[in-house]
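Reposting from the mailing list since nobody answered there.

I have sequence plus structure tokens for a pair of proteins and want to know whether others read the tokens the same way I do. The first protein:
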Amino acid sequence: MSYKEKWSLLLEEKRFRAKSKTIESDGRNTFENDYGRLISSAPIRRLQDKTQVFPLEESDYIRTRLTHSLEVSYLASSIGQSIENQLLKKKELDSELKGNLSSLLRVAGLVHDIGNPPFGHFGEEAIKTFFKDYFKNNDGSTLSEIEKADFENFDGNVQTLRILSKLYYFGDEHGYNLNYSSLASIIKYPSNSIDGNRKLISLEEFSKLPSSEKKKHTFEIAKKKFGYFQTEEETFIEINKYLNLGNRRHPVVYLLEAADDIAYSAADIEDGIKLGKVDLNDIERIFRENLVENKKNVLGNLKKLRKKFEKEKNVDTSLIVQKFRILTQQIMIGSIVKSFEEHYDEIMEGKLESEIIDISAAKDIRKAYKKLQYIVFDDKSILKKEIAGWEAIYGLLEIFVKASKSDSFIASGNNLESRLYKIISTSHRKVFEDIEKYKNDEYKTLQLIVDFISGMTDRYAIRLFQELKGIKI
């Protein structure tokens, strides 16, 4: 299959069931149709109260998962337009498909964090730790090793696929019924939880390992984590087979990852400045220490911005940082587009074993931003709220999982277990009772609980935990 034929396959209209009929004047392409299905839905709205960096932040200036996702959506679409222009010039893309790639990336950016639990990555760690403890102390579990691994390695990206393909109930078992490529765009690690979740090392390092150690390591980025739960295995297999991906990344995954890196690396520092966690001197010092290729350009522009605005009346440092963010993002976007062209074959075959930004001319900018993020992430006010979030998530899992072991964990009845069951949202219970066909009831029940808790907003998770523990009525 030529790359032109592959793009035609990846950007065509293909869903698990035929698309609902639309009005004759509807001029949207298949991915704009997906965007319309998503933008007004409850899982997207809940992102407005999920942590980006600053948990439970009262300032309305600071980014949430929703504002971050909107920024990633725009950046990804912008990158897609540039790539699309390249492909059209090289006649690698049919002209009738113009706009589809950027629209696909717009969708991918919007939904890429939809599966993240309350309190972000620290929330993921709370879920993983709970289940490692739970299975360690629960000899009677009926779960297989791969089923246990799904919970012990819980990941927001994996939950995203579940939400998009099944968990969002909109009348049938297909969830949003999105285009195959929309679903494939968020499968960053196309492996199951046993084949994936390995330590990523170079091919050279991997070749030197003894056979006994190779199962714990990988040189393939697709196996760094995992991409689907056992309940969504058939969905993954169908998408992977139809799109001819060969258990490798869809090409747009690389571009989405780059857009995400560009968005949060710069934006987190902009928010940090506004809250007083870092200052301009921190930015200048760390960029000076870490820049190589872009040192003269970036530091020179930062110096000009400081000279122009630092002493200007009624202007604070956030304006300087905003303009600095825009400058660095422009450099990173240009470098991503160029790097995509340089590594085109590897990307189209899903064999590029690095993130694009890490092999681009802007890798030093990304490195500098990472160093700055450590200052922000280690702020005590953030750490204390993350710990509170951890306690809430771990505690809610304890309460609901303990109740789930009782035969009374059903909707009928008036005892404690049935009351807890009825607290779970009706849409989740609908999927659990009528849609999910997975055969292991224990796995299904644990997944129901994780679906409910991981879908909570930060404030709801804290409030529900306090209410159930009698701390706050």
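The second protein, same order (residues first, tokens after):
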Amino acid sequence: MKLNKKERKKFCSTILKNINVKEKINDAKSKFSEFLEIPQEVVSNYTKITCIEDTDILIEGYKKIVDYYDNYIKIKTNNLFVIIDGSNLDIKEITDSELVISGNIYSLNYKSDKG
């Protein structure tokens, strides 16, 4: 698709406006959470992962459980895949947005789902 100079300029202008809008939304979310003293991850799409030694992992902001085995669990979050390797892994608690995994945890890895 070839664009002439005027069309390219308009296209770039539209992209810049969209970027500015997203920055303003993120700034507003940040100010909102600060004002109400709410953690940033609550008002945005952040994922919070808390490890307790090598026995428990709390994942806040998960979307779905992709794979679930005794020695391997893969979780989809807002923008990551979280992969847990271990033995006797079990989902101890689960809610709409949080889950707790217990067992003998050998490794915790994550990777972006954008690539």
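Reply #1 (J.P.):
I read it the same way you do. Residues 5-39 form one domain.
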